[in-house]
Design goal:
By secondary structure, the protein is α/β, with parallel strands linked by helices. Helices cover about 50% and strands about 20% of the residues.
């Protein structure tokens, strides 16, 4: 009887323990995952950023998370990519919060539109939002008519995003587009552009708990109390693709691609330089496709490539390489620093000069190697043997046929050869090859008069 009671007690305890483990999971599935997914992004608005946002929002929806919180620090980016991100946020089934942080961060240009599109937003102290005036896709000045069209289109979009926050926010958002106006965190909070000023992510969750937001037309209240903050970092591929939006990275890739390809062209069959060159050029072109660059600059870079190629194929005194370096410098400056180019994609003059000098130096190394290869004594065939020195291993003695010549064996380039001379030469003597007849070397003792190669 006691054994049965003991077994029953053990069974009840096991069931109770199992329920204790399962109950939180069941409750989470019924009430949603009480977590806030945190995405962190810094840099220009790129397709890689849009892909990261899409993955984060999909993860939040799949887990029925309390919210997706995007920590944003961006100088701006392409309008098409920005509109894609806005569509992702406005069609999300999970609340999306944009937090401009940490201190010193900005949500300029495209970043301000992304912040307006969020269901709730916050900024860290000493941060900035605004300056959303559009620029052209090639970084050049925009004609007045096209500029007005872009401005009016962007203003209409920000009005639709800002209207729920009131007329004062609408006016400020339009001024960001029309006048490139920017405001700091306190000004944004006073007008109602953002919902809170918070020094860190943890405080954002506390500040916005209980805040009413509209998600896909449904008014809900943010339930963030006690939520777990779970970081969702960018994948290595997303990080790599996002890094390609950096003008400095693109410049380095271009300066690496061209000399690598020239080495492959100058030494066909050495596949490593060709592979590196093609990969670097492909990545550089991908990065250029993410930025509003002036494609005329790429034309100058192509001209620089031709000048460097001519220097390698017809080596001179380095004049073509110098011209190529100057053309490459001009190309980089036009590519990224044209009038109307956003500030975030510009590169400094010193950086452009450093990249151009590095490329020129690489090309000069390639050209010097090519010249030395052309002037180098051949190491194989008849041309490689004539003029080479060797050592007699079997004394050169009168030929058995009765010819007035002397034959023996010599060691040249690590190989034994049948040798013929006009005089007897004892074993161990040093000789020089003066000609070649079939597989027989014509030799002469080193130091002998007229020890010059014969023409054959």
């Amino acid at each position: 009887m006691m054994k049965r009671i003991t077994r029953l007690v053990v069974l009840l305890l096991a069931v109770a323990g199992l329920l204790a483990l399962v109950a939180p999971v069941v409750a989470a599935s019924l009430q949603g995952d009480n977590s806030v997914l945190v995405l962190e992004i810094e840099g220009a608005v790129t397709p890689a950023m849009a892909g990261y946002f899409e993955r984060g929002i999909a993860e939040g929806e799949a887990r029925d998370a309390a919210a997706v919180l995007i920590v944003l620090d961006t100088p701006g980016g392409g309008l098409n990519t920005t509109q894609e991100i806005i569509r992702l946020i406005r069609n999300a089934e999970v609340p999306v919060i944009v937090y401009i942080g940490p201190a010193g961060a900005q949500a300029a240009s495209a970043g301000s539109l992304i912040t307006l599109a969020a269901h709730a937003s916050a900024m860290a102290p000493q941060t900035v939002i605004g300056a959303a005036s559009p620029v052209s896709g090639d970084g050049a000045d925009i004609g007045e008519t096209l500029y007005r069209k872009l401005v009016e289109d962007t203003k209409a979009q920000v009005r639709s995003l800002a209207e729920p926050r009131g007329p004062e926010v609408v006016a400020l958002a339009e001024a960001m587009v029309e006048e490139a106006r920017a405001v700091h965190a306190e000004e944004a909070a006073e007008t109602g552009l953002i919902d809170a000023i918070s020094p860190n992510v943890e405080d954002v969750v506390v500040e916005l708990d209980g805040h009413d937001v509209t998600v896909r037309g449904e008014r809900i209240r943010l339930d963030l109390a006690g939520s777990r903050l779970e970081s969702l970092p960018m994948s290595w591929l997303e990080q790599a693709l996002h890094a390609l939006s950096d003008p400095l990275v693109i410049s380095i890739l271009l300066s690496l691609a061209v000399p690598a390809l020239l080495i492959e062209l100058n030494h066909p069959g050495v596949w490593v330089p060709g592979f590196v060159g093609v990969m670097a050029l492909g990545l550089a072109l991908y990065g250029l496709g993410q930025l509003p660059v002036n494609w005329l600059g790429l034309g100058f870079i192509a001209v620089a490539f031709v000048l460097f190629l001519l220097e390698v194929k017809a080596p001179g005194l380095g004049g073509l390489a110098a011209a190529g370096g100057l053309t490459l410098l001009l190309g980089l400056l036009v590519l990224f620093n044209s009038p109307g180019s956003p500030q975030f994609m510009r590169i400094g003059l010193g950086t452009a000069i450093a990249v151009s000098l590095t490329s020129s130096a690489l090309f000069l190394i390639v050209a010097t190697a090519a010249v030395r290869a052309l002037r180098k004594q051949p190491l194989t065939g008849k041309e490689g043997l004539v003029g080479a020195e060797g050592q007699v291993r079997k004394s050169l003695v009168p030929a058995p046929e009765g010819e007035l010549r002397f034959v023996g064996m010599v060691l040249v380039h690590g190989e034994l050869w049948r040798a013929r001379a006009n005089e007897a030469i004892p074993s161990g003597s040093d000789v020089i090859v003066t000609g070649m007849d079939g597989f027989t070397l014509e030799v002469q003792a080193v130091g002998a008069e007229s020890a010059r190669p014969e023409s054959a």
